[in-house]
Amino acid sequence: MILAAPAVILLLVFAYGPMAGLVVAFQDFNVADGVFASPWAGLENFRFFFTSGDATRIMRNTLLLNVLFLSATLAVGVMLALMLNEIRGKVTKRFFQSVIFVPYFVSPIVVSIFLQAFLAGPGGRGGLINDAAGLFGIPSVTWYTEPGPWPWILTLVKVWQLGGYMSVIFLAAITAIPEEVYEAGEIDGASRAQMAWRITTPLLKPTAAILLVLGVGRIFYGDFATIYAIVGDNGTLFPTTDVIDTYVFRALRTRGDFGVTAAIGLVQSVVGFVLVVIATMVQRRYAKETSIL
Amino acid sequence: MTATVERTAPVTRVRPPSRRKSRRLEPFTIASYAGVICFGLVCAIPFWMVVAGSLTAESALSQRGYSFWPTPFSLDAYTTLFQGTRVWLSYGATIFITGIGTAIAVAATSGIAWVIARGLPRVSRPLAVFAYIPMLFNGGLVPMYILITQVLQLQNSWFAVILPLVIAPFLVFVQVSFFRATPQEILDAARIDGAGELRIFFQVVLPLSKPVIAVIALFYAVTFWNEWFHALLFLSQPEKFPLQLVLQNLISSVTNAAELGTTSAAPVYQMRLAMTVITIGPILLAYPFAQRYFVKGLTLGATKG
């Protein structure tokens, strides 16, 4: 069918093209010779990356941050959905849902500006958090030079961005739960809290499983947009925030090292692919009817 | 922001008496209200801080920091921004990228989704796998960079920002699940009337699918409006920068702000906030009307997938 042709061509060029372009990972790439004529380098690029000392740091950061992001957003999403479900009145419920969903539509750059308002005010001032802490006599912190708390700050940012989004998905799953289940619970004298915890939460497992599988597949991909927009080239924060994607971006921009950066990208894709296959298989075993394809 | 959402809610609607209404308030319900209201405030406050800040005079901003109410009130940042040409240019760039991008994306996505949904032997299933693989596996930054700059020579073209994003596999499958629900009888009727496959798609299927097309168009539009990474990589001429990239330059260096205005003593911090408001403004204004489509799209994608 010709209707699919534009999409097939676009996918071939912009999704499958770059996959083929990964041969660069095995080349000593230079712009003059291009993809087809650059000399081969074997596994040299991979060896360079894994012996550089950066590899463990950025892989650890990527995994740690993504595990934090994924568990926090899923947990908050389920909690928000359970709480939204308690809200009576359609209009009120939809109003609150709209408000908590809105951060999802804000670009990472804007999120970064919001964050600056809280952590570092204009003209070298401390920002809202420090101003508030000052009222209680707590000394102010120069957040943008302290790498320690940043994994948690970024996790809070992700929860702010995605909490509402996740809750919309979970709330849709809650609406699909048949009313009789709750009537049975009511007859047994269950409180609202018990019903939420004993009935609704277990029934949300399949939805959570899908989101988890998708998340696990992306666990080796750092959240470039959010992290780069917030941290940028602020080197003091790299020890805890530098992930594979920001590292690759910097390596490409400052060193122009195509081969090594492509090699990192390939490692990333392969590990991500293996993880998602494993996760899908595990999930299929437990919830056959909810698998994705 | 909150005010606009409130206004769209039909407050006067009469609800049937709810069964639960008679129940007494339980602690969990009260805690839920508190929790949702807190999270809602956390979501809304940053927006208000930035709007208020953008209307506060630069001097007060740098002396007292952000405040909940703009005193002294000042429109300096907005007048400076709109007198310069850069804001208009970047708005034009963003509108071009969003408009053209969404149009291409919707056309391509609908086409492939329909063919997958038709369930044609030996075509649909491989095509679904073909569209699914990029969701799991991608070439990454370097090959994309080489492709755009070396092979296609698209540097400094807005199409370098648009084309890598025109097919989102997730939205393809949202649309497939909608198309699958198209009643077979209607298609058969059209076929008996002698309509060809193409004519069926354009004159029967697409008009029936307006709701799902609205959903995916909105998702794509937000993606394009917020896109800055490909712009950062491939655009180097400042007059081609979309809004997000201009804004990013404002964060990375305060001196960039001065270039946006016409006067030398530009209110730098105030302008950064004003630029933020200008960037998110259209999304926030459209959001109350579009919100239910987003919820619908997510629900379709999550439950059928």
Automatic annotation (TrEMBL), chain B:
Keyword annotations from UniProtKB, A to Z: Cell membrane, Membrane, Transmembrane, Transmembrane helix, Transport
Q: Give all residue intervals belonging to the ABC transmembrane type-1 domain.
A: 91-281
Localization terms from the record: Cell membrane
GO terms under biological process: transmembrane transport
Q: Name one GO cellular component term.
A: plasma membrane
Spell out the coiled coil positions from the record: none
A Pfam family of this chain: BPD_transp_1
Instruction: Give the stretches traversing the membrane.
Output: 28-51, 88-117, 129-152, 158-179, 200-225, 269-290
State whether keyword Cell membrane applies. yes
Query: What membrane topology does this protein have?
Result: Multi-pass membrane protein
| Main localization category | membrane
PANTHER family linked: ABC TRANSPORTER PERMEASE PROTEIN MG189-RELATED-RELATED, POLYGALACTURONAN_RHAMNOGALACTURONAN TRANSPORT SYSTEM PERMEASE PROTEIN YTCP
Record protein name field: Carbohydrate ABC transporter permease
Q: Which organism is it from?
A: Ruania alkalisoli
